[in-house]
Amino acid sequence: MKHSTQKPAQIGDNHQNHVSLSTAYGSLLVILFLFSSFVSFSQTQIGYDAVVDGAWRFNGDVELYGKKTFYTDGLKPVNIMYSSLLSRLEIGIAQGNGNYSPGTQAGDIVLRRLGEGKKLIISNGTTHDWDPSRATGILASSSEIGLWVHNNGNVRLGKYSSSAPRVKLAVDGSIEAKEVKITSAPGADFVFDEDYYLRDLQEVESFIKENKHLPEIPSATEMEASGVNLAEMNKLLLMKVEELTLYMIELLKEINSLKTAQNDASK
Questions:
Q1: Euclidean distance between CA atoms 215 and 208, whole angstroms
Q2: pTM of the predicted model, to two decimals?
Q3: Which candidate, 140, 164, 138, places its Cα nearest to that of 153?
Q4: Of 147, 146, 152, which is closest to residue 168 (Cα–Cα)?
């Protein structure tokens, strides 16, 4: 058996071996450096509080874990910015009256839109999600009562219900206002038309005795069952006032006629 007389390769034996091993060592050092940097960065995100004096910029997705993610002190708010539109979403905590927005007091939290654009939109669902049971709510603390905007565009004040309101505003409770203006309420000037049928008072009396309510006016039972349309009821009540005015005019004419006849008889 012949034994090989070739010597084992040694570093520095030739230029090729030297370059290959140096490259391998260099690559290994780079990998170790990147791995240690990654571990250090991961620990900063997951296990430690990080203090950043400058700005962090990310070109990809950012995942945050844990309950405590961002801190800001003083009047330094958290901003989400779209630089090409110069528009941003800002969340801040007021340190005193009027910080961030008129009416704020110390400790108030403010969410506002700054820069270009006109609207701050909070939406529940995708652009084409018209499921009316979905709603965006603003709730009172420790309460189910709040303001709910359903995906069909209708608004509910009260408890959430998967059955969306069939009207633009549904209020589960009372409403107090200094003024209410109904812009589409019809009038009742037709009462003064020459061809308007004005019942005589004996006919009205007979109707009241039989039905226990005025002609054209819904009964109390109907109002309790179906509610009252304020615009329509306002028109009906105005119609009855105008009818009463016509009755009074007729009665005045009869009284004046009787007075004239009495004066003529006394001469």
A1: 8
A2: 0.56
A3: 164
A4: 152
